[in-house]
Amino acid sequence: MRFIDLSSPVDAAFDEPDPVRHEILTPREGAVHMSEEMREHFGIDFDPDELPDGEFLSLDRLSLTTHTGTHVDAPSHYGSRAAYGDGVPRNIDQMPLEWFFRPGVVLDLTDAGTGAVGAARLEKELARIGYTPQPLDIVLLHTGAERHLGTRRYFTDFAGLDGPAVRMLLDLGVKVIGTDAFSLDAPFGNIIERYRKTGDRSVLWPAHFEGRQREYCQVERLGNLGALPAPTGFRVACFPVKITGGGAGWTRAVALVDD
Prior knowledge:
Glucose Oxidase, domain 1, two-stranded antiparallel ribbon, 20% helix, KFase/CYL
């Protein structure tokens, strides 16, 4: 079995709308920190210089959103109310694990320009690869947006899905849709421009707002989708971090290919 990393990194050097703050305590600083914490919380005095080389363990402190790096959006991210079930969308810690380890199918949308891709384009790609997604398959969209990772263009130049395209996949029983772009919707600027021209509210973040009608999850900011050897014949593992009450959770998404 071969493992293919489908994740993009959390990198404080990247251009991000919500900048990442990453503080690293060295093993020496970790020793001092440990000594201070033991004294404050447990009343234990311990000289860090008694440790080998005066070092303990390194420590990383991060400040970031749950939508930084590769992550899974929970239904509660899409709104406070849902048209299904009891009307209360689930948080990321409540989602069934079986959704996140399933057969995968990758669709090549690298020829799509900035904006929203429709159902007809997805149908064309599915016909090309000769496959119809099965219930609970994880569908991955290879848009090529990863080429701008770490730059401002990563947030402005990519292709998302429109409402009918999302509904088409959900009609097939898909519960998890992934993309290598910043968002499953088109870029903010593109959406606002189309809305101002038409006054049509259906262009306002339709991929996300469809989640208010039917329960599903998005995996955004994937990476390395071009390394998948074929459109099908692999499994995807993308278990989200269990954040109580969270609208999203980071994931180390991986494809498993049987050789």
